[in-house]
Amino acid sequence: MDEDVATSTDTGFAALGLRPELLRALADLGYEEPTPIQREAIAPLVAGHDLVGQAATGTGKTAAFALPLLQGLAPGASDAPAALVLVPTRELAEQVSQAVYRYGRDLHVRVLPVYGGQPISRQLQVLRRGVDVVVGTPGRILDHIERETLRLDAVRTVVLDEADEMLDMGFAEDIEAILTETPEQRQTVLFSATMPPRIDAIARRHLREPLRIQMGRDTAAADALPAVRQSAYLVARAHKTAALGRVLDVEAPTAAIVFCRTREEVDEVTQSLNGRGFRAEALHGGLSQDQRDRVMGRLRSGATELLVATDVAARGLDVEQLTHVINYNVPSAPEAYVHRIGRVGRAGRTGAAITLAEPREQRMLKAIERLTGQRIVLEKLPTVTDLRARRLEVIRTTVQEAMAADDLDRFRSVLASLTDDADVEQVALAGLKLLHEANGGDVDEPEIPSIAPQREREFENRAARRGSNGPGRGRPAEDAVTRVFVGLGRRAGLRPQDLVGAIAGEAGLPARDVGAIQITDRFALVEVPEADAERVIRALSHSTIRGRRPTVRRDRPHR
Ligand code: AMP
Hints:
- The protein is α/β, with parallel strands linked by helices.
- It has helices at about 10-15, 20-30, 35-45, 60-70, 90-105, 120-130, 140-145, 165-170, 170-180, 195-205, 240-250, 265-275, 290-300, 310-315, 335-340, 360-370, 385-405, 410-420, 425-440, 455-465, 495-505, 530-540; strands at about 50-55, 85, 110-115, 135, 155-160, 185-190, 210-215, 230-235, 255-260, 280-285, 305-310, 325, 350-355, 375-380, 480-485, 515-520, 525-530, 550-555.
- Its EC number is 3.6.4.13.
C-alpha cells in the first residue's frame, strides 16, 4: 500500500503552488489529489497564461479555473469585481459560485451569482456593497452593464465556462459585447466540452497565445481491460444515495468497492448505506495504516460487504473476492475509470462495473467508451416494483434451499400442532410472511424519477436545431415533443436565449433538450420533450422572464 497516502494532500495541490488558505479549504473538503485537468491547468493559469481547455463536466474543470482565480485575488481590495465567469445557465451559475465560495472560504471572497429570473434588486444591493467574483449568464450580465450597475474595468480574469453550450444558446453576441467591456490586458480562460470551429474562432479573436489542454487523449491505459460487465445509471444528484442503495439491493455483491470523489462524500455514502442495512466501511486517506489493514481484513472475511473509498485510499489495494466496482460519480478522467475497474474480473473471474452518472456527465461516459473501446450499457434504475419482486424471489430461493436440507424433522411437532386447526397452506404462508419481514419487509420508498439518455445524435444536432424556427424541424421523429405557449413575444423584447435560459434555469431541463423556438410579436412557442412538459410549464408559470410573469400553457393544436 502507498506510503504517501497520508501526505498526498500536501504533495498534490501544494506542488501546484497554491496558497495555504486554498490548501486548507481543499483539505477540509476532502479533495485528496488534483484531477488530471487540474494538474495541467492550474500552474499555467496561476502564471497568468490564457488557456483553452477541452473538458466536460465531471473532470474537475471548475476547480481548475476557480483555484488560480482565487490565488491571485486580494478580496476586498476594490469594490469592482476582479474576475468574471460566464456560464450558460442559472444552475451552473449557482454551482460555480458556490464552488468559488467554498474554495475561497478562508480568503473571505465575495462572490455573486447573476442570472435572469432572479429579482434584479437583490443583485443590485450586493453589487453596490462590492464583490470580488461575478458568475453569471451572459444575458443578465449584459443587462447590468447596460444599466451601468456592473463595472468590468477592474476585471483581471474572464472565464468562459461551457463555451459550446453558451454558443448553442445564442449567447455569442452577448459574449462579444461583454468581452469588449473588459480590459485588454486581462487573462482569458475558455473551457468547452467540444471544440467546434466557432469556439476556435472565439479563442483566436479574444485569447492571447493560449495554452491548449485536451482531456481524454491518452489511450495507453486501456490495454489490459478485464472482462467486466459495464453499465451505468442516469440519476439526478438529489436521488443518488437512494439510487445507490437500490442498485446494490438488486446486484447483491459479495464484495464491492464504492468509489467516491472526496473524503466528505465517502463519509456521507458510508453512513447512508449503513442506514439502509448494508455493512459498509469507509476507507480514505485519513485512516492510519493499521486501521486500513483492519478494514481490509473485514472485507476479506466477509464481515463487511462494501468498502467506500477515494481513489487515493484504494491505491494498491488488492482484494481477490471483489465482485463489483461501483462508481458513485463518473471518474474525473477516463484513465481513472480503467484503473478502478481493473480491480474486478481478475484471473478469469467475472465482475461488474457500475457507474452512477448525473445527466450532465453523459459526455464523460462517451469519452470512457472511446478510450476502452467497450460499451457501457445505460440501464434503467430498478423500480420499487422490481425491488419487491426481487425480495420475493430471494425468499423463494431461500425456502427452496431450506427444503432440500435434511435437518427439518425437528420442526415436525410444531407443524403438527399448528395444523390441528389450520391447513398446511395457511401455516406455510404465515412462515413466508415472517421470513419476508425478517428480510427487511415491504419496500417502502418513493420512486426515483428515471432520466432518458441523451442520444448521440442529439449531441450533434443540437446546434443545428437551435437556429431553426419552424416547429417540428430537427428533432428525431421518435421523440414525443410538446409545444408550450408563452405569452411574451418580440414586443416584450423576448429572445430565444431568454426562453432557453429560463427553461434550463427554472425547470432544470438541459438546454440541449429545448427544441425549436418560434417567437412572434406577442407570444412564443417552444418545443420541449413531452415527458418534461408539465414540469417546464409549472416552472415557467412561476418565473419572471424579461421582467414579466407570462401566461404559460400547452399550445392548443388548432392555432
Ligand atoms: P466539475 O467537473 O468541475 O463539475 O467537478 C465535478 C465534481 O468533482 C465536483 O463535485 C467537485 O466538487 C469534484 N472535484 C473537483 N476536483 C476534485 C478533486 N481534486 N478531488 C475530488 N473531487 C473533486
